[in-house]
Write a structure and sequence with these properties.
122 residues, alpha/beta, five-stranded parallel beta sheet, Histidine kinase, kinase activity, Bact_response_regulator, CheY-like_superfamily
Length: 122
């Protein structure tokens, strides 16, 4: 299964997503802010990176730019999670390089389906 980085500052949501994805057999690394996420990005290669739009230190948008420039992550897929669900917000996230945009609140099963879909698209 895939190695996934989950960067989400809400602990309960991070635990829910991690449990859901681990049940599918994925290896999940967790970060509670953008700085921790960036440190993990520099250390490991990920098939998928799930980012919260609004996080302390680096936002999800700032991290997308860093991910796309990092040689270890050039092939990583990115899913952005955000409560900012206006069409313009979604467009800016996709234009920045995210592969998927998921509006909060969301169903864990829907996210699970998105993760499986994006990982099987290679």
């Amino acid at each position: 299964m895939a190695r996934i980085l989950l960067a989400e500052d809400e602990e309960v949501l991070r635990m829910l997503i991690t449990d859901t994805l681990e049940d599918l057999g994925h290896k999940i690394d967790e970060a509670s802010d953008g700085e921790e996420a960036y440190r993990l990005i520099q250390q490991h290669g990920y098939e998928l990176i799930i980012l919260d739009y609004m996080m302390p230190v680096y936002t999800g948008m700032e991290l997308i730019k860093k991910i796309k420039k990092h040689p270890k992550q050039s092939g990583a897929k990115v899913i952005m999670l955000s409560a900012k669900s206006q069409a313009a917000d979604q467009q800016s996230v996709l234009k920045a390089g995210a592969d998927e945009f998921v509006s909060k609140p969301f169903s864990p099963l829907m996210l699970m389906d998105k993760v499986e879909e994006i990982l099987s698209s290679d």
